[in-house]
Amino acid sequence: MTAVSVVIPALDEAEHIAPVLEALQPLRAAGGELIVADGGSTDATVDVARPLADTVLSCAPGRARQMNAGAAAARGHWLWFLHADTVAGAPALAALRAAMARPGVQWGRFDVRLSGRHPLLRVVERAMNLRSRLTGICTGDQGIFVRRDLFRALGGYADIPLMEDIELTRRLRRHGRPLCITAPLVTSSRRWERHGVVRTIVLMWRLRLAYALGASPHRLARLWRASG
What we know:
The chain is α/β, with parallel strands linked by helices. It has eleven helices and eight strands. It has helices spanning 17-23, 25-29, 45-49, 63-73, 90-101, 119-135, 148-153, 164-173, 190-195, 197-212, 217-226, and strands spanning 4-10, 33-38, 55-58, 78-81, 86-88, 107-114, 145-147, 179-187.
């Protein structure tokens, strides 16, 4: 069995997914497994991904469903969930290998760096990293990794259209706090740049607060989609 299976949910990511998969080729050469779970792309995502991944699955759309489908096909002791616009450099790969070798580690996540140059993005990424370090709650941008047996024992991601990462890490936290890797992943800042940094910050905090207060993930997903 391979050490780690990387599961990447994708939907119309032909423009971004090649650099993500190319950065993971050293992990693949060392015996890791790359799985792309495509949710019905209408662009060239599947064609771009196929030569760079071990498995490209076609499954129902929805990030939680796609990640669960990828995890079901995985052969690794570890599962690493990575977004299709998030690049892991050599320091992050080395840090992951070290983390998986540490006794007692059950799960963890990475610090994140946003790709854009806007000064407020530096504030956003620092706040994200500090918040998850203090709370033990993580987002998908931070590249959540977890032992496969623990993930399966918990039943995987909840089948909800938004906040699936927060919901999962709340359950994972009961089994121990995450290992927080400081070597950053670089994730696209396209949404912040397209809709405005301040507007996007406000929207994200509004949605997270509403979820914490018990709002339905289905209603929150409609608000997220309506925002563009």
